[in-house]
């Protein structure tokens, strides 16, 4: 350890710069954080040369103290900064070295992701359709799946012995109680429960005694009913156009084709322009589009203006066919899901194979 | 309904292709399912490959007994050798020849063939080869007057496009070629030929029909009209080619000329007919009456039919001879020996026909039309069409007079059509003049002009069109729905949305999805023995099973009372396909029977099933099999999201492991179960291979959603911070965690906000038979910030309560 020799201000300053220079060199040459710490103690500790130099200032005459004290502090601060910087550099290098030793095989698989669940395609499609009609001002209402003959047929203008009853193969529990063959029974149930206007959609399971490649004994429909003053067939067309564009794309068109349902008059079937071939009937390779069978149109709904005979069943609730008019429509949820997602077989929807379900 | 285009064109021919006809008719309301081809294909001039030829010579084939070598003359420059296998080929015959290159109806392309060493330059055709019949035994002999070399198709229909319609039940008039022609006329404006029944045959027979046959009808409500005509000198035989071709193209098998005429009339104008061999009608009387209970008849198809008193029979002197409107009997059937025919055209009660044919499980072309209620006028039209054909085709003589037994026939409807109503219902302006034109084209007559029209409905639409709305539909569909504008309702008070319960249900489903579960959709049907497989107690309400009277199969013959069988089936099916990580849920209705005559209680249930490698194996953690606690965690998350106060109570249903199952109580009501499946139930549902039985829960959402809270009120958990304390409570092994928690709660009072079990210890540091339950306590005051001293005081109160109530001690230690 260097002793301070002599105590003239000049001597002190000389010593000071010599020590500072020596310390600086030593710090820069240090090769580990440990060495740096040792140098810190040696040059800046209580017994260190620099410390002593600063202490010896006390012995100088007052007029000389300020200059030397200032220079001493400057040297000390510079050395402190240098030591801190050198220590940080060395510690960083040492950490890098250690981390390099902790290397893992990055090609091993990651932890399994927190498993992602799935709504059934029918549920997600049903919700999508519901949300479109909610936006159009419709409420979502649900009714019983086990129905009476009255609501399923009679009040929908299929009196007993009506040939239209033959169109639907019905599951019965008894003469009067059956599984609803469509969601239409809710039309009369809803009108019984509230006066006009009505804007409602009625989703749910329906059942027909039919099972083959394109039919399952249970499937899903959404019925829509709007009853108000002055509703027209053109309003029905506009409503279903909005629906078709929301579900199948903004450039879709719809067309109404005359049809027959006992509980609507006029009755129509509703086609949407084909989204696979853009209504041309031909795919890009020139082949006939199998989705629309080359017609450019795909049937998506049955619909019509509510038949005055249906209103007669709820006339007392305020449904005078001379005063209110309405339209109703029925959409197949399963069919729309299949169309949108190119599902080739209806039965896939009910087999519940996870390899199917997890795709949606 | 199959309509051959050539037949249709005879009555209305707008000069359109088959595809255009399909589109025009579909857009005006007569849906075409498909356009098919009957007979030879039309493409590439194929019909030019079929010619008329004359046989010049016939010689035996040198090497084949059954073959003949024929020289056939087609023209000066075309004489060819054709090898023929038909026994009836003969010199001077005029025949139909298919040239090499011709394509036959079955798609075969004819080549030049060498038959046993003799080259054959074409083929002499029999009926089967061109789909004109099933007589393969001999060639077709054409009339000698036909010129050889001319195209056969210009004399005999060889091929036809066929429009296959899907006719809706309100339009029996379109189950007929002429009815479709009328639609085509309305849609295109192309002229319509006169009704086929307008012209009648000359009655050239002797005597009076009334003298030859007596007809009575007991009840005109069941049979509004029964008309009969009598024909003599009938020559029964095969029908001419043109008639057979039309029937075949329309899908009807030719039988004999008399029967074919009845079918032809039915296909042409929609009125089924029946021909009796008058000499086999016992006592020459026909009587129409209701059947007697238990009466029997052998119908034309050879089946014995048994009737109840709702069926209507046509009887002769010996008893039943036919089921009115559905099928005739075998006894008075027309045969080759028939010479006198009684031709029936009747009108039946549609509802009665529908019910009878349903009961007998016997539907025929006739019943399919009668059940839709035909008008009595049509029967007389049919008599006239049939009479002309009987004379023309069978050489018959019509005996003067029609035996017409008819009740009072209701007048056709007269309806006022208000122009303003037309516009108001359609949302488009349609001039009254235009409505009038459309209705007239459809066969309606319109009596007055001006804004309102008085419309008289034609007989063939009298059942279907009875109200103003029906007329508006007619106007709209012919005017063209494609011309309608697309508008939106100007809504009043229409605020869309889900109900609170629907939102909550969506939230519950979303939560389970968020927890990694996959939603399934099972059929609502179960096998009735599923409730036994579930080992349900006698009084378990899940035994309130509603049974279908007419199921598709025994496996699907009952309505589910719980979602569990469906979930188990989905699990079984996926496991069988080596999909072993199962986290499933279903949200749907269950049905609790109130007897088959009453609507059941329908409840929305939410069920979940965890099975197999519930958390799959990875390279750094083993697979985890689910247990009660896995299911309970999901259940808790769900019920907390729904804002429902809940707890579990002992005593799960019998299909669960007796020691690992519980009832779910929400707001004090039992509303579901949670637990591990009983191994025997697992076995019954095909899940025996699983290492551990599935963990399941099911909730009665209908019940839960009544107490659920959608929008909770804000609670201030921020301004005044909580103080936490951990304690470990040493209790007897038998004491349940819930008991400890309740005791702690009662000691902690209102400032104790939550108690959570975070550890459970059994072992050396405790006396045998004891366990230590470690709890984290959260204290919070609504009025002030709690200090550590406050917490210590509360802890003392809890300690005392535990000691007094449970004899439990706090385990003081590093956690204390």
Brief write-up:
With 360 residues, chain A is of the alpha+beta class. Chain A is built from 12 helices and 9 strands.
Describe this entry's structure for a reader.
- The complex is a heterodimer of chains A (360) and B (816).
- Chain A is an alpha+beta fold.
- Chain A has twelve helices and nine strands.
- The radius of gyration of chain A is 44 Å and the shape is rod-shaped.
- With 816 residues, chain B is α+β, with helices and mostly antiparallel strands.
- Chain B contains 20 helices and 38 strands.
- The model of chain B has no long low-confidence stretch (mean pLDDT 92).
- The chains are: A alpha+beta (360), B alpha+beta (816).
- The interface between A and B is large, with 93 and 97 residues.
Itemize the secondary structure elements and their pairings:
The complex is a heterodimer of chains A (about 350) and B (about 800).
Chain A: H1 9-29, H2 33-44, H3 49-56, H4 62-100, H5 121-135, E1 139-140, E2 146-148, H6 149-152, E3 177-179, H7 185-193, E4 198-207, E5 218-228, H8 233-248, E6 254-261, E7 264-273, E8 297-306, H9 308-312, E9 325-332, H10 333-341, H11 348-351, H12 354-357
Parallel strand pairs in A: 1-4
Antiparallel strand pairs in A: 2-3, 4-5, 5-9, 6-7, 7-8, 8-9
Chain B: E1 2-4, H1 5-11, H2 18-27, E2 31-39, E3 50-61, E4 64-75, E5 78-84, E6 94-98, E7 113-115, E8 118-120, E9 123-124, E10 159-166, H3 177-188, H4 209-212, E11 214-217, E12 225-232, H5 241-249, H6 257-269, E13 274-277, E14 285-290, E15 296-298, E16 304-306, E17 312-316, E18 319-323, E19 327-328, E20 341-347, H7 350-360, H8 365-370, H9 376-394, E21 397-398, E22 403-406, E23 414-418, H10 419-426, H11 432-441, E24 445-446, E25 452-456, H12 468-479, H13 500-514, E26 518-519, E27 525-526, H14 530-533, E28 558-559, H15 564-576, E29 581-592, E30 601-612, H16 628-641, E31 646-650, E32 656-666, E33 669-677, H17 679-684, E34 695-700, H18 701-707, E35 723-732, H19 737-748, E36 752-761, E37 770-779, H20 788-806, E38 809-810
Parallel strand pairs in B: 11-14, 26-29
Antiparallel strand pairs in B: 1-10, 2-10, 3-4, 3-6, 4-5, 6-9, 7-8, 12-20, 12-21, 12-22, 13-20, 14-17, 15-16, 17-18, 18-19, 23-25, 24-25, 27-28, 29-30, 30-34, 31-32, 32-33, 33-34, 35-37, 35-38, 36-37
Helix pairs in contact in B: 1-3, 5-6, 6-9, 10-12, 11-12, 13-16, 19-20
């Amino acid at each position: 350890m260097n002793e301070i020799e002599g105590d003239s201000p000049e001597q002190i300053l000389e010593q000071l710069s010599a020590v500072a220079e020596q310390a600086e060199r030593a710090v820069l040459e240090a090769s580990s954080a440990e060495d740096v710490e040792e140098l810190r103690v040696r040059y800046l500790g209580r017994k260190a040369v620099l410390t002593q130099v600063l202490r010896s200032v006390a012995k100088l005459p007052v007029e000389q103290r300020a200059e030397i004290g200032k220079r001493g502090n400057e040297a000390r601060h510079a050395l402190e900064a240098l030591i801190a910087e050198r220590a940080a550099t060395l510690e960083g290098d040492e950490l890098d070295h250690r981390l390099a030793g902790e290397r893992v095989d990055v090609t091993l698989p990651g932890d399994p992701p927190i498993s992602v669940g799935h709504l059934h395609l029918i549920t997600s499609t049903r919700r999508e359709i519901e949300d479109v009609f909610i936006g159009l001002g419709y409420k979502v209402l649900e009714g019983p799946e086990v129905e009476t003959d009255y609501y399923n047929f009679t009040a929908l203008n299929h009196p007993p012995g009506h040939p239209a009853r033959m169109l639907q193969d019905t599951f019965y529990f008894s003469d009067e109680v059956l599984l609803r063959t469509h969601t239409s029974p809710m039309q009369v149930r809803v009108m019984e429960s509230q006066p006009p206007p009505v804007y409602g959609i009625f989703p749910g399971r329906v059942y027909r005694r039919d099972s083959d490649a394109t039919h399952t004994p249970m499937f899903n429909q959404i019925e829509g009913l709007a009853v108000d003053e002055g509703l027209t067939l053109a309003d029905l067309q506009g409503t279903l156009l909005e629906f078709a564009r929301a579900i199948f794309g903004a450039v879709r068109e719809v067309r109404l084709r005359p049809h027959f349902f006992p509980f609507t008059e006029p009755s129509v079937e509703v086609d949407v322009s084909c989204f696979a071939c853009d209504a041309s009937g031909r795919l890009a390779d020139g082949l006939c589009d199998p989705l629309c069978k080359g017609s450019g149109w795909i049937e998506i709904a049955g619909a019509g203006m509510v038949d005055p005979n249906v209103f007669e069943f709820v006339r007392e609730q305020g449904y005078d066919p001379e005063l209110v008019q309405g339209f109703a429509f029925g959409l197949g949820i399963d069919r729309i899901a299949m169309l949108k997602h190119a599902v080739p077989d209806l039965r896939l929807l009910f087999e519940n194979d996870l390899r199917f379900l997890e795709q949606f | 309904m199959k309509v051959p285009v050539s037949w249709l064109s005879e009555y209305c021919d707008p000069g359109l292709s088959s595809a255009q006809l399909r589109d025009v008719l579909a857009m005006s309301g007569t849906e075409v399912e498909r356009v098919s081809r009957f007979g030879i294909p039309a493409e590439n001039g194929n019909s030019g490959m079929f010619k008329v030829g004359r046989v010049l010579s016939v010689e035996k084939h040198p090497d084949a007994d059954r073959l003949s070598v024929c020289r056939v003359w087609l023209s000066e420059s075309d004489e060819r050798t054709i090898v023929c296998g038909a026994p009836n080929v003969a010199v001077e015959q005029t025949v139909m020849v298919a040239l090499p290159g011709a394509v036959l109806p079955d798609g075969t392309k004819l080549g030049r063939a060498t038959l046993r060493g003799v080259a054959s330059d074409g083929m002499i055709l029999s009926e089967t080869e061109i789909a004109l019949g099933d007589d393969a035994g001999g060639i077709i002999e054409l009339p000698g007057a036909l010129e050889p070399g001319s195209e056969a198709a210009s004399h005999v229909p060889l091929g036809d496009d066929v429009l296959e319609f899907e006719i809706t039940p309100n339009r029996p008039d379109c189950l007929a070629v002429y009815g479709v022609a009328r639609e085509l006329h309305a849609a295109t404006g192309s002229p319509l030929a006169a009704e086929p029944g307008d012209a009648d045959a000359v009655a050239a027979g002797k005597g009076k029909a009334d003298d030859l046959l007596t007809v009575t009808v007991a009840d005109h409500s069941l049979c509004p009209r029964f008309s009969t005509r009598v024909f003599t000198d009938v020559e029964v035989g095969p029908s001419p080619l043109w008639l057979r071709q039309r029937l075949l193209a329309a899908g009807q098998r030719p039988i004999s000329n008399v029967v074919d005429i009845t079918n032809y009339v039915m296909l042409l104008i929609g009125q089924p007919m029946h021909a009796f061999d008058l000499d086999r009608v016992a006592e020459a009387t026909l009587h129409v009456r209701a059947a007697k209970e238990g009466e029997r008849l052998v119908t034309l198809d050879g089946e014995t039919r048994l009737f109840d008193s709702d069926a209507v029979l046509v009887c002769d002197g010996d008893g039943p001879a036919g089921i009115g409107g559905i099928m005739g009997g075998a006894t008075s059937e027309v045969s080759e020996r028939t010479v006198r025919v009684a031709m029936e055209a009747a009108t039946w009660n549609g509802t009665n026909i529908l019910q009878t044919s349903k009961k007998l499980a016997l539907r025929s072309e006739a019943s399919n039309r009668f059940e839709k209620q035909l008008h009595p006028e049509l029967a007389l039209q049919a008599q006239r069409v049939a009479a002309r054909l009987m004379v023309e085709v069978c050489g018959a003589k019509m005996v003067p007079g029609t035996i017409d037994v008819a009740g009072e026939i209701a007048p056709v409807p007269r309806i006022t059509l208000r122009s303003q109503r037309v516009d108001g219902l359609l949302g488009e302006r349609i001039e009254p003049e235009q409505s009038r034109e459309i209705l007239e084209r459809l066969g309606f007559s319109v009596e007055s002009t001006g804004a309102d029209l008085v419309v008289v409905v034609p007989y063939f639409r009298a059942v279907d069109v009875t109200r103003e709305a029906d007329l508006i539909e007619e106007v709209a569909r012919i005017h063209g729905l494609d011309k309608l504008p697309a508008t939106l309702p100007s809504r009043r008070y229409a605020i869309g949305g889900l109900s609170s319960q629907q939102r909550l249900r969506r939230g519950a489903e979303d939560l389970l999805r968020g927890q990694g579960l996959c939603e399934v959709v099972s059929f609502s049907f179960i096998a009735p023995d599923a409730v036994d497989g579930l080992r349900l107690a006698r009084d378990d309400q899940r035994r309130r099973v509603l049974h279908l009277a007419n199921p598709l199969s025994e496996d699907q013959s009952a309505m589910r009372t719980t979602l569990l069988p469906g979930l188990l089936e989905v699990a079984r099916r996926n496991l069988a396909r080596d999909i072993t990580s199962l986290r499933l849920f279903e949200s749907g209705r269950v049905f609790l029977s109130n007897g088959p005559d009453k609507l059941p209680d329908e409840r929305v249930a939410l069920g979940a099933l965890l099975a197999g490698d519930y958390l799959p194996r990875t390279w750094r953690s083993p697979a985890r099999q689910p247990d009660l606690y896995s299911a309970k965690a999901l259940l808790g998350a769900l019920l907390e999201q729904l804002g429902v106060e809940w707890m579990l109570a002992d005593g799960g249903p019998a299909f669960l492991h007796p020691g690992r199952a519980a009832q779910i109580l929400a707001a004090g009501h039992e509303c579901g179960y949670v637990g591990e499946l009983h191994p025997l139930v697992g076995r019954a549902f095909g899940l025996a291979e699983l290492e551990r039985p599935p963990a399941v829960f099911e909730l009665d959402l209908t019940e839960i959603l009544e107490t659920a809270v959608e929008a909770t009120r804000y609670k201030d958990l921020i301004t005044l911070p909580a103080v936490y304390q951990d304690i470990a409570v040493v209790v007897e092994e038998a004491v349940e965690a819930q008991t400890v928690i309740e005791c702690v709660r009662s000691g902690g009072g209102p400032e104790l906000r939550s108690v959570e079990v975070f550890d459970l210890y059994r072992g050396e540091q405790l006396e045998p038979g004891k366990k230590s339950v470690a709890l984290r306590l959260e204290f919070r005051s609504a009025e002030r910030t709690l200090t550590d001293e406050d917490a210590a005081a509360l802890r003392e109160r809890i300690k005392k309560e535990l000691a007094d109530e449970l004899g439990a001690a706090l385990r003081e230690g590093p956690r204390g």
